Amino acid sequence: MFNIRSMENYRHILVQLEEELIAIETEFDDPLMLSEKGVQLSKSYLRKLRSLVVELGFASEEEECYFFKSLKPKLVSKLIYYIKLFTIESKRPRSSRKAQKHYLHTEIDKLQHYFNENLEFYHYYRRGAVNLDHHFFLRKGANLRLHPDTIHFVTDAQFSTSHDSSVATIMAYDMLIAYLQKQLECTSRLTTPVKKSIPPVKWSCNKVDLIELIYALHTTRAINGGAASINEIALLFERVFTIELGDYYRTFLELRSRKINQLKFLDHLKASLHQRMKNADA
Questions:
Q1: Which domain-ending residue is among 137, 154, 189?
Q2: Are residues 144 and 87 both part of a single domain?
Q3: Which of 21, 72, 171, 208 is the most exposed place for a label (fewest CB within 10 A)?
Q4: Cβ proximity of 38 and 21 under 8 Å
Q5: Rg, Å, the chain Cα set
Q6: What is the mean pLDDT of residues 181-201?
């Protein structure tokens, strides 16, 4: 027996989250900014879902199994995905294509390792089995002997079973592997934009200034009609100037936190060019 009203309320929260995540996927091109916002949204909606479950509960064990096997993991998978995405992208090398491809392959292997380490449950879930659902997806059925990979069923018994987080992790890692494979394809297609005949040039200002310029070019969609990502633009400038920009997202956060003169370098560019025009007209 299903309580239609409560299940629709639970589904509605998932739909709302999905709509907001689609919106930020369009708004944020930088994977670090995107993942930070994704984590914030996912946590917020997870709190809403938990409050609703505690308030409304379930009409039957069948309904409870369905929720913890099919609904809650969809939301939690988004949280896991964005947390892992932030970690992966923040540590991603910004040097050669070879180094990037090696890193991406290594990260895929790490994710696949989780599936191998949890092979029995992985196969149970993948083949759509249901015979053990009352052990895996009922709160009262949580048991250490089932080898759960989380302690949430102990620390939050009202909102966790022994294996709902395992399903969420499988979902999240599927999404991450698809993302990393797409990044590998993009890296393989990427051609070196700087011809060998161009003499070496050096960036004479500091790295913060260059990062400020990169974000300005990205924001104004000045490169490839806005199709180029922050990562691609940064990589281009690193190659042109043979420079390592490091964690440019952290630098951008520091720029945002400036109390005065946030766009110091861009203001300097504008003032310098304006002065040059005045001198030329004199």
A1: 189
A2: yes
A3: 208
A4: yes
A5: 24
A6: 69
